[in-house]
Amino acid sequence: MANPNPGRRHPRPLSEVLGELFAARGYGRLQALGELEEVWNRAVGEPQCRQTRVGDVRRGVLNVTVSHPTLLEELAAFRKGELLAALRAGVTGATIHDIRFRVGLVREPDDEPGPASGPGPRPAAAPPSPRAPGRGMKRAPRASKKKRDDRG
Q1: How does strand 98-103 pair with strand 61-66?
Q2: Which pTM was predicted?
Q3: Among residues 42, 63, 61, 43, which one has the least CA distance to residue 53?
Q4: pLDDT at residue number 137
Q5: What pLDDT was estimated at residue 35?
Q6: Is residue 149 assigned to a domain?
Q7: Is 86 contained in some domain?
Q8: In 10 A of CB 103, how many CB atoms?
Q9: Does any domain span residue 66?
Q10: Which residues pair with 54 in a beta bridge?
Q11: Nearest Cα to 95, choosing from 106, 103, 107, 87?
Q12: For position 78, which CATH number holds?
């Protein structure tokens, strides 16, 4: 018997619809990132897990932001092998063959404004550095060598 409504689609299994929804919204990636953070926190330990933030995995390289250069050096030079072994054993969704550390701002989850808290006050800008001016800043003109020789 032919379909009486040719323009109407047949019912699809719920698992298929949910799978497409999760893929479109990125829920699977969020779940994998949560698992990765949990394994990282266990591997790195309590004091350091609050000073690091797990980033994304690109081409098998896990990007981790660290709050201080000293901690970066400790993790990269002395604990990288141990951390890689723990990540490989604990993470099922991604293959990790290296960790790349960088120094940056690390916030605890409680510090980040969520949808319930709304936009809070912005942090104050950092004071200007006492070092030499960077890009975009002009220096005071220097006296030419000829003028300096004439002075003394």
Answers
A1: parallel
A2: 0.54
A3: 63
A4: 56
A5: 83
A6: no
A7: yes
A8: 13
A9: yes
A10: 64
A11: 87
A12: 3.30.300.180
